[in-house]
Amino acid sequence: MVRRLIVAALPVFVVAVVSGQAPGVVRTGNISPIIDSLDTSLAFYETLLRLQVPPNRGGGPRPFFQNPGLHKMFGTTGATERHVDARIPGTTMGVEMIEFHDIDRKAVRPRLQDPGQVVLVLLVRDVDALLARLAAAGVPVRTPGGKPVPVRDGARAVLVEDPDGRPVELRQLASLPASAPPDGEIVGGRLAITVADLDKTVAAYRTALGFDVTPPTRFGIDLFVRTLSGVRGEVRRSVATSPGNGQLFELMEFRDVERTPLQTRLQDPGSVRLQVMVRGINEVAAAVTKAGGAIVSDGGVRASLPPNFWGLTVRMPDNVYMSLLEPCGDCAPGRPTAVQTTAAQTAGMPSAFISAMPAISSPVSGPAKMYPDPAISVVPGSPQVEDFPYVTEEYFVTGRANDAPYTTRIVVRRPKDPSQFSGTVVAEALHAGGRSLIFEWSRVSILTRRHLFVEIVHSPANVALLKTFNAERYASLAIAQGQTNEILAQVGMLVKSGSAPFASYRIRQMTLMGTSASSGTVRNYFTTHAARRLAEGRPIYDGFLLTSTNGNEPLSVVDVPIVQMPTQTEVTTWAEAGIKYRRPDSDAPGNRYRLYEVAGMPHNNSRENPGFLNDPCTLPVTDFPAGAFTALGLNYLVDWIATGKVPPHAPPIEVDQNTANDGSFLALDEHGNAKGGIRNVFVDVPVAANGVMGKGKTTAQDRLCLLAGTKVPLAPDALRRLYTSKDDYVAKVDRRLKELVDAGWFLPEYADAVRADARAARVP
pLDDT tens across 225-270, in order? Predict the structure, then answer.
């Protein structure tokens, strides 16, 4: 029961507590309202609000339990409890409802202005529709007039009460947050806390917990708060952002209105407990008490919560209860906090475990050939992996994911000389077609810059491809549905652990990338990225590159940099209906993001794909160097992670939604090339119209050509108007290429290939 209440209510933390790291909060977890009746609260939070109660958490009888360690942490020794946790979509936070029995309880119904009041703010898609359902069920509405009212930043909100009289704010933002799930009524959440002394609370959150807190505003009449709640008086505000997962805490202090600081006990219905994962639990608790808080755990000491956590509950200066949790290797009472904890349970995911660090085999040498053969699928004369000083090896990785065993395969390409290693590991989720396409396209840059590359087999379909190729060699491989995210996390954890074959390489950062179908694999990993952590809450993957991205929905916000590169194919696909996937670029600490669209770049790198050697398409196939631009995006991502160098912004490809002028929903120039986007020699010094979405000469070839680019040569007269001679064209290419390289929009390792293209071009 302890693991269900404490560990199951938190995201996965695979933590190695490293000596010398500063104490503080690693990340925040759930809000735990203490309730009078679990069944009544479930009817509100699950049935009416439709929060997500995982299948293994709800349903069936819920008996009361007693656990000495748990109640020592709560300061409720002798009590029994039962609980259910519900997930809030679009956030790492959940609502863990706890009902205590066998202990004195007294219900409290605090007002919004009372210090210690914690309001759950649910971000909703349609506040009117949700309120109508709640009102029909008889849910009390606190907002005067009983209807949503305008609040700051163009939002609309209403206050309702949960069954224990606790205010819950339903807030519809002016636009959906980027992290919003594609469907469902609830799209995010945050907390609003009323405090007695905002200056004291801000200092405590900053110094004791390590939150990023905005300076308090001055007292003043807040019409938004007044119309929302009916509470008069003046208000001043601040916003605290938690480390790790960036959870927002809206802090408020009222004056000139009656207010009574909460004096609840943790077991009293109406009180609230927050969960935070910390590093250095005793030091954080001491800092809280120094800031004016108090320890409420029995004896004032941490409790043992076997097998994985120390726990200690404090009351903050604002009267809010916080349970501090710190992973440990062996949590027997009296033992010090240990290192290298690797067992944890995932919040909100049925039976999802990282039970241990996965095991890695020795290099696989047979029988017969390694998949795929050839190792990279490129046209003759293209640079090969063997042209670089690298070792390529295959390994099997074995572990458990979602309560079931798995065996997968990784391919490791590492510099022969570890001293030349860049410090960056570039991992890629294997594409459904059976290849690591971004690596193949961008291999020249990845290998030139001496990154270490890891290909990860992650799905049953991947395994089927390998077994079809060589059933004997890959007989032991087995992956079940639903294990993909856990496998990606565990392989990343393995790589960063420095296990063989990575022991000689000083790994400083690791990225994960995917293109087309495998970009969907990476996008799906975002849903659990925040829940899978290394030491002190650090992410397993330090950044993500997604190219040729499928779908028209924006990527979720995560706490590490993202570079997204939809190609001109994706822009063309969604131009008529309206492009929704575009998110604003951001440098915010919890939302570092760049969107790069390259003019002329197709979905598939047809330049090196041998599938186009037999001329399968009705129009000439482009030789646009798509790999040079996926490498550009990767290079910007790596620099952002490794050095903090902020990548430049680029305009999107222009869309005019007008086919009358040029037959395209894009805005094209006089030569038929797209305007806007990342510029390049091929569209700025053109010899052809570089398009996308070709057509096959046969129905069977349509799919291949649809994903390729087209290259329709300009008429000789048009070329003569642009260039006085072949030498003039080559000189203009060289001049424009130098400008792009100097500006950072083209990588120097691909410049010679572009110059060779120019010399081979047909210019009269």
Answer: 888 989 988 999 999 988 877 888 999 999 998 888 777 788 888 8
**Spatial CA neighbour of 535 closest among 245, 327, 306, 274:** 327
CA distance 162 to 270: 10
Please determine, for residue 569, whether its predicted confidence score (pLDDT) is greater than 60. yes
**pLDDT score for 65:** 61
CA distances from residue 571 to 248, 605, 657, 696 in whole angstroms, order as listed:
34, 16, 11, 21
pLDDT value at residue 63: 59
Taking only Cα atoms into account, the Rg of the chain, rounded to an integer number of angstroms, comes to 29
CA–CA dist 422, 428 (Å, integer): 17
> Beta 272-279 vs 234-241: how paired, if at all?
unpaired
Confidence at residue 564, expressed as pLDDT on a 0 to 100 scale:
98
CB atoms within 10 A of CB 111: 18
List the beta bridge partners of residue 99: 82
Task: Quick: pLDDT tens for 42-94.
Answer: 889 988 998 877 654 434 445 566 667 777 788 887 788 888 888 888 787 88
Nearest residue to 5 (alpha-carbon basis) of 38, 50, 44, 36: 38
Mapped onto helix, strand or coil, the DSSP state of residue 729 is helix
pTM of the model: 0.59
**Rounded distance, CA 663 to CA 658, Å?**
8
- Is the dihedral angle over the CA atoms 284, 286, 287, 288 positive or is it negative? positive
- How long is the chain? 764
Q: φ, ψ for residue 561 (rounded to 5)?
A: -65, 145
In degrees rounded to 5, what are phi and psi of residue 222?
-105, 100
Q: Tell me how far the alpha carbon of residue 708 is from its chain's centroid.
A: 30
* Interatomic CA distance for residues 521 and 53, integer angstroms: 24
What value does the mean pLDDT take over residues 146-171? 91
Residue 286 CB neighbour total at 10 angstroms: 15
